[in-house]
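Mods, move this if it's the wrong board.
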Amino acid sequence: MKLTLSLRSLMTISLCLLTGSAFAQTTADSVAPSEPISASRATTQSTREQAYLRFLEARRLRSDAQRQQNQKLFDQAIAAYRDTIWLDPKSAEPRVDLGELYFFFRNDVASAEREALEALRLDPQCVGAHRLLARLSMALMKFSGTNKEEKEAAAQFNRALTAYEAVTRLDAGDAEAWALLSDLYQAKNDTPRYTHALERWASLPIPIDQAFYGWFTNQELTPDRAFAQLSQVYLAQGKKREAFDAARRAYEFNPENTQYAGNLIGILSEAQTVEQALKTYAQLSKSAPSAALEIGYGATLTRAARYAEAIERLRPLANSDPINPNVVSLLTTAQRRANQRAAAAETLKQALPKVEAAQRAGLVFEYAETLEELGRNEEALTQYEQLYDSLAQSGRVNERQLSLFGRVVSELARLHRRLGNNAKLQSLFTRTRKVTDEQTYFVERAQLEGLREEGKRREALDLVRATMRRAPQDKNLKLTEITLLAEEKRFRECEDLLLAMLESTPERASEDAIVQMVLSSVQLQAGNLNEAEKAARQALALDATNPSSTLQLASVLDRNRKNDEAEKLLRDLMQRAPDNATVLNNLGYALAERGEKLPEALALIERALTIEPLNGNFLDSLGWAQYKAGQFEQARTTLEKALVHARRNATIHEHLGDVFAQLGRPADARRAWEKALTLSLGENEIARLKGKLREPR
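Not the wrong board. Structure tokens:
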């Protein structure tokens, strides 16, 4: 099959490959067709010697033409190559050189293909001929546009693949061939060969001739690019050590490449523990420092709960690059978690005017959160409302901002409910429906939260089912329905629905893990501890990377009196994720519940609350640990604060009743237990509360 490229496409090749400038202006229409020279002519020793000398002259002319960008010298080079072939028609190499000039200079694709094929007929082991055919096919694929051209390109795909494979068999050190083979294998989803091609490319030095590859890919033919791709391939294969090594080599080749830095940072978070990653950062910050690496270093220090060090490393970056929203966000996160919320609020306030408007929204949300954590609710409300207005100002929320917009709606609805602003709440819902489409359920989610806070489970269930009729495939809505059914103690119905959701395929393992976690929670509520443990272990087996799987199993084990195993799971998880507030809280609460290691329990829960100070469950944990430590008045204050954020939590009411009993306030204790009884779902909890209410006080 002959190649046919558009005139414009061929001109692009000439300009980019041969001269690197606007010098080459010759088109296929301005030159006479190049007639083939027969290979059947007899030769003598004398003519072969003349041919060799003419061949050397042709190469000199070609080199001079490229260096001087001289069109006349190119024409002379072509003539010299044709003389060489006339004198020695059985020589393959001059035909390859001539074919390249036809293709790259004269845009004569047919003649270039003819010379390459004739060279291969004369010498099937001619590397240059195989390479030229591969390049011709790759060029056709690059410029295919119409359906006819695309069909031809599909055929050329296989020819390029075959030709480059021949090149690598004959010359295993050809970087261009391995690099473009990796692209072809990736397009075929041939992962083993794709990986092998990348590995061979990565092992080779940078070639001198990068012209064709540079034109075709607009990239440099350097091994760092192979290492960067290999790192992702290895990571997908679960080869974390190899992924890290490849990512590191790519980064060290060019530390200023932010994509390589981001790739390394991402792989470090998956391939190494927090402590291992910190050691790597410490080494690289000395041997191959960069601003991007320092950002990753600061983020990892925060994950390690080493907030003071994170702040020290991130503050200079924020000062030197005040318009970078990512740096500002990381710095203020570390400040908030170090319980320096006033400083975080000031950092955000100073940074917001400097950051570009298009990148400011996330920081405004963090500013509002920080103000709320400081108890400055009216200021927080103002920031949330201004952010809402900016996101909805065009009359329709940008799709890229939908996730953030949903969070803003949720926070505004929660604050309006807490402050009793019912009119503003309804206005929020009305406007939100106007600026989002019917497949967006921000209003319904906020309404569901409100109904559940008020204990209106039946209305909540009706609402979620009405929403599901608009989106029957939405799994989150289905799980919300199941959660509400569980609160109605319809456990068998929940289990049947959950089992029907399991897909049992490797591609859906993480989704199945979530279903198994919910199933475990339902079975735990039903008092089926062994079944709950089995489902939790299945969730962990499906997705060990999700901390929620470990947390669920630890909760079940704790309820099943397997305290040592539960504690070990939580401590191991805390070692891997020392900044995970839920892990800190759950371990602290488990210790407090058993009355063990109360100083450590208090410290763990307090750490969790520095991360999430408005979490009602965490405040309950702290109040209960204070109660266990005999700090009854502090416990009362803490638990009353917890009810501000989770007023329908049965456990908090029960704990507050226990505190009132210790403080000698039996009437208050009774009222708290009675409230807890109306909110309790579990049979054990109900029996325990009835026992407390029967006891004389």
